[in-house]
Amino acid sequence: MSNERIQSALAGATDTRAVVIEEGALARVADVFRENFPESRAVVVADGTEYRVAGEEVQRVLEQGGIGTEEPYVFPAEPTLYAKYSNIELLVGSLEGHDAVPVAVGSGTLNDIAKRAAYETDRPYMNVATAASMDGYTAFGASIEKDGHKQTLTCPAPRAVLADVSVLVAAPKDMTAAGYADLLGKVTSGADWLVADALGVEPIDKEGWRLVQDGLRGWVADPEALAAGESEAMDGLIEGLVMSGLAMQAYQSSRTASGAEHQFSHLWEGEGLGRDRNPPLSHGFKVGVGSVAVAALYERLLARDLARLDVEAAVSAWPSWPEVEERVRALHTLPELERAAVEQSRAKYVGADALRERLELLREVWPELSGKLRSHLLPAEELRRMLRAAGCPVTPEEIGLSRDELQKTYRRALTIRSRYTVLDLANETGILDECVAELFEPGGFWAR
């Protein structure tokens, strides 16, 4: 692992000041806390399972290190803790009784609950990671179910993050696999940023790009070793996940680490896919299937020479906003998702003249852009192999979807974020539906 790389990234972070990732890191909890929260008291926050895994030790080290502590706040081990707003309200109610800094001991759900609760009680917090399961440890915002659907709530990233590699290696394999899938999704999200940059929609930030993409191939190179529990592979995974979060802080946007593959996941999460499982279907597993789906779409797109696109035909077929709004509303059955999809789709809608200008630019840049995309992307089949080797689901059926539902997701996911991705490119050129149809017809990627 490159501590130099992480320390360099911290220089551009807005919230996080310290990241410690090493074997035996739990022994340093008191020192890291004291350095980053001088004169403060601590309160350990965990669920019953994570408290047994690492919370008890964190509490012991804090006390022996001379840190004043409050009684730990421990959510029940069963049922599995879910990131819903009522759990934030419970924690906020407890935190309002003192001024201690929360030390969240857990992974994605617990971190998000503590992150938002700390924000609502106007204090920083620290995270002790227990699984390399997602890139949110060092990211701002918390993914929480509120008012009937998943949404990202405002809150800063932790001031300090500590991860003991021996604890991460011992975590449930599904959690490690989910983190791998989340990290591998940066392949397709990077491609989406290349597209947005080439078309003048959102220029690439060199530092934001470097923090995620420069080390990505190395971090995801050996899924077999990760599945076997090798510490070196775990070092790479947690470094990549932490760097992704720090990149979001530096760029003040998730564009550095999230593209169309996350739109697939966000749509499914908004509809409650896999929530009734125990444990619930992870964010990373949904991102993994989304990444394969998006990479397969890129392959169909790259099979076409868009330098020869009939721009006037595409502009002539382009619907008006009222027509788009009607179509967007028809794609969603949940009122909350429908409203959000209309809002997000309206934000990125362009009229005929602006579309013509964009597509003319596309014709000009396609020879260079297509070369960059081919160089950057991994084949969908290779992504599928890597995910399977890491222990991730790779088919829609494994996450509870039919092929028909997956096929419809391509157009539905387009509507839920204003971020420009390959879904928008295919839609604006008028080839989205035919490209997707090719993926599902006999001999197509999803028919194999």
Based on the model shown, name its key terms.
448 residues; alpha/beta; Rossmann fold; Dehydroquinate synthase-like, alpha domain; 2 domains; six-stranded parallel sheet; two-stranded antiparallel sheet; 21 helices; 56% helix; 9% strand
Overview of the structural elements:
The chain has helices at residues 3-10, 29-36, 48-64, 85-95, 108-120, 165-169, 173-184, 186-198, 206-219, 223-227, 231-251, 260-270, 283-302, 311-316, 321-331, 335-348, 352-376, 380-390, 403-414, 422-428, 432-440; strands spanning 18-22, 42-47, 73-75, 101-106, 126-129, 142-146, 149-153, 160-164. With 448 residues, it is of the alpha/beta class. It has two domains: 3-171, Rossmann fold, CATH 3.40.50.1970; 175-447, Dehydroquinate synthase-like, alpha domain, CATH 1.20.1090.10. A six-stranded parallel beta sheet has the order 1-8-5-4-2-3, sandwiched between helices. A two-stranded antiparallel ribbon has the order 6-7. The longest helix has 25 residues, at 352-376. The model has no long low-confidence stretch (mean pLDDT 96). It comes from Rubrobacter radiotolerans. This is Glycerol dehydrogenase-related enzyme. Keywords: Cytoplasm, Lipid biosynthesis, Lipid metabolism, Metal-binding, NAD, NADP, Oxidoreductase, Phospholipid biosynthesis, Phospholipid metabolism, Plasmid.
